[in-house]
Amino acid sequence: MLPRDRAGADTLRQSLSWPVFQRLLSKLIDTPVDLALPKFKLVGEYKLKRPLSELGASKAFDGGHADFSGITGSRDLVIDDVVHKAV
């Protein structure tokens, strides 16, 4: 559902009550359309050290408390940062 003009979006939003929405839905008809979208790329990068620490994993980032000896056999391993990157 689109407003007739760009400035009409706010007017549409303000007038869109449930009865108005139901009335509009009852008048809809299926119409085939050709849709072209430009090629685009989304990239996201999120640093997770702070959120993971706040969720209780702070010892993993602290050299005095981290214990990854099950992985390396020593307690020298500590996590410096965690970054999630999606392309």
From TrEMBL:
GO terms for molecular function: serine-type endopeptidase inhibitor activity. Keywords: Glycoprotein, Protease inhibitor, Secreted, Serine protease inhibitor. Its main location: secreted. Residues 1-87 form the Serpin domain. One of its GO terms (cellular component) is extracellular space. Gene3D superfamilies: Alpha-1-antitrypsin, domain 1, Antithrombin, subunit I, domain 2. It is found in: Secreted. Pfam families: Serpin. It comes from the Eukaryota. Belongs to the serpin family. This is Serine protease inhibitor. It comes from Amblyomma americanum (Lone star tick).
